[in-house]
Amino acid sequence: MSGIPYERLKAFEGRVAATAGRGRDPVNEPMIRHWCEAMGDTNPAYQGPDAIAPPTMLQAWTMGGLSGHTGRSGAHDELFGLLDDAGYTSIVATDCEQEYLRPLRPGDRIVFDVVIESVSERKTTKLGTGHFVTTRMDVRAEGDPEPVGTHRFRMLKYAPAPKKPRVGRPRPVINRDNAGFWDGVGAHRLLIQRCGGCATLRFPWLPGCAACGSPEWDTVEAGGEGTVYSYVVMHHPPFPAFDPPYAVALVELAEGVRMVSNVVGVPYDKVRIGMPVRLEFLRVAGDADGEWELPVFRAVVGSGG
């Protein structure tokens, strides 16, 4: 891996990466409905003849799919090619920031411009050493010169750090809002919060009810039955104590709430949406402080999943 003079990288700041890019589809009701169902968002503003699109869908309207977009300039590819040649061959998305200026409505057609906003000096992280690249996308509705929102996307282009000996599973962050949940897991009980005001069940645990605002709550114990609502297969990047590829599922419990966990008992490439699963508790080795419990879901074999 060779270093790149920072002045050479900094020269990419302000260069255009895409001009007048177009969303592949107009803002539309079916995509809004699918998004709201996946997110469990029942806000009435996203329904009916005067519906608006959820603001957090801003990036969804600009995505190019597998075939990508036309009209992208060479600045982005040139920068990433330069980093690749210097040995920074891996990439991971680190974070994004969105600013919403006005709502989008069904029928709006999306156009956008993208600029390389910043390239950091060389940074060393747990993943490896590299450079953070931030792009800014200004999103507009066709025919309107004013932006409807801005999307900043930050990536790390890096050279992977040398592999370290396998270590124990990192412990979850436990605080006053979720300590009761992890106490339950330690006792092999999966506890769901129930609002003391409107009896709405909620997961993950929160200090107050999103439906009525009440801070009062108690718990109900999940029976353990569920189905795979959605899932992803993790391939990269690898982290200590995790051995990709493996499936991470969004499991819908019989009680109606959803939680993220691993599916065990079947190969990662056999996990399917709708697959019935049942709760069990997995004992794992921690980094340096003994063993602890995790709730996972075992595929129910022979049930048509």
Q: What report would you give on this structure?
A:
The chain has 305 residues and is mainly beta. It has two domains: 6-160, Thiol Ester Dehydrase, Chain A, CATH 3.10.129; 179-299, no CATH class. It is 11% helix and 37% strand. The protein has helices spanning 6-10, 29-39, 75-85, 179-186; strands at residues 16-22, 90-100, 110-119, 123-124, 128-141, 147-160, 191-195, 201-202, 217-221, 225-234, 246-253, 258-264, 276-285, 291-299. The strands form three sheets. Strands 1, 2, 3, 4, 5 and 6 form a six-stranded antiparallel beta sheet that branches. Strands 10-11-12-14-13 form a five-stranded mixed β-barrel. The radius of gyration is 23 Å and the shape is globular. The protein starts with 5 loop residues before the first helix and ends in a 6-residue tail after the last strand.
Order of H and E elements: HEHHEEEEEHEEEEEEEE
CATH structural fold name of the largest domain: Thiol Ester Dehydrase, Chain A
Q: What's the tally of helices? A: 4
The CATH class of the largest domain: Alpha Beta
Count of individual domains = 2
Cα(first) to Cα(last) distance is: 47 Å
What oligomeric assembly is this protein in? single chain
In percent, how helical is the residue content?
A: 10-25%
Summing up helix and strand content along with how strands pair, one would put the structural category as mainly beta
